[in-house]
Design brief:
Layout lengths: L19 H12 L14 H4 L5 H10 L6 E4 L2 E3 L3 H20 L5 E4 L21 H11 L5 E5 L6 H7 L5 E8 L17 E6 L5 H10 L1 H7 L3 E6 L16 H18 L4 E5 L5 H17 L1
Parallel strand pairs: 3-8, 4-5, 4-7, 5-6, 7-8
Antiparallel strand pairs: 1-2
Helix pairs in contact: 1-10, 4-5, 9-10
Length: 300
């Protein structure tokens, strides 16, 4: 997934969603001796993608993929020569993790992937995202017989793509804590889907205690959904060091949130959790936060 490199030609200099992000995560996990039971991702199959994205949209990304240089899909989202393969592997990793957890071959998994996915809509790439990785994984989980699926998204940006896929399906539940107002402009508390969407916006610059209170407010609805599987959109860009946000969260807050999710998972779905990397653009903060998250997944 390091082959996805949107930096060349980016109007603002080095693109935040750069290959070094994945290296920072993996280096930190190895340093923390957490990179155990590693599985190499395989490319997602078209059938899994097309449970969320139309055939025409998937075909359009295959057609847009450049042999060299960059193709701009929106002001922030580019494809380089390696981007399509990376996106197929990113979605494939989360799908394969869901299959293993659904079949009882694993209890929990963390997917270190890029590009991220939670902004991608069924017919639109946006916000650095090509395929809606976690939504594709949710539909795969349903195909595996786990009908009631929940996503908890603590990326600093609202997961508009995931919400757009989930909001009309009462078997899917979407809970998000995020900075608001901020990109992409969605995520107000009044957005509730068919009673299956819970948004907990946090004002820019709010103390981390506010972030924690807003996150905690999501757990009652999560438990009430009685999910068969919990998916986590694990974005670490709410960290105080990250320049793409105005939040004050620290690595230990992500660990605390992970433990809260695990408590619900134990009470509702035999502890089943699949987490996938979304944002996080300060490399030091990203590595520390990923370690805190994975440690909590393993210990809780």
């Amino acid at each position: 997934m390091a082959g996805h490199d949107p930096s060349a030609g980016y109007a603002h200099g080095r693109h935040p969603e750069r290959p070094a992000r994945l290296a920072a995560v993996m280096d930190a996990l190895h340093d923390g001796r957490l990179a155990r039971d590693l599985r190499q991702a395989g490319a997602v199959d078209r059938a899994a993608l097309e449970r969320v994205h139309s055939r025409a949209y998937v075909d359009s990304l295959f057609a847009a993929a450049p042999g060299d240089g960059l193709v701009r899909l929106d002001p922030d989202t580019m494809m380089s020569a390696g981007s399509l393969e990376a996106a197929l592997l990113a979605a494939g990793a989360v799908v394969e993790a869901v299959r293993e957890v659904a079949r009882g071959q694993a209890g929990r998994a963390f997917c270190a992937v890029r590009p991220p996915g939670h902004h991608a809509e069924a017919e639109r790439a946006m916000g650095f995202c090509l395929f809606s990785n976690v939504a594709v994984a949710a539909r795969e989980a349903q195909a595996q017989g786990l009908r009631r699926i929940a996503v908890v998204d603590f990326d600093v940006h609202h997961g508009n793509g995931t919400q757009s896929v989930f909001e009309a399906d009462p078997e899917l539940y979407f809970a998000s804590v995020h900075e608001w107002p901020a990109y992409p402009g969605s995520g107000g508390a009044e957005e509730t889907g068919v009673g299956n969407v819970s948004n907990a916006p946090v004002p820019p610059g709010a103390p981390r205690e506010v972030w924690r209170r807003q996150f905690e407010s999501l757990m009652t609805g999560l438990e009430a959904h009685r999910p068969d599987l919990i998916l986590v959109s694990a974005g670490f860009d709410a960290h105080a060091r990250d320049r793409l946000s105005q939040q004050q969260v620290e690595a230990e807050d992500f660990a605390w949130a992970t433990r809260a999710i695990a408590d619900v998972a134990r009470a509702t779905c035999d502890g089943r959790i699949v987490s996938t990397l979304e944002g996080g653009y300060d490399l030091e903060a990203l590595g520390r936060s990923a370690v805190a998250h994975v440690e909590a997944l393993q210990a809780a």
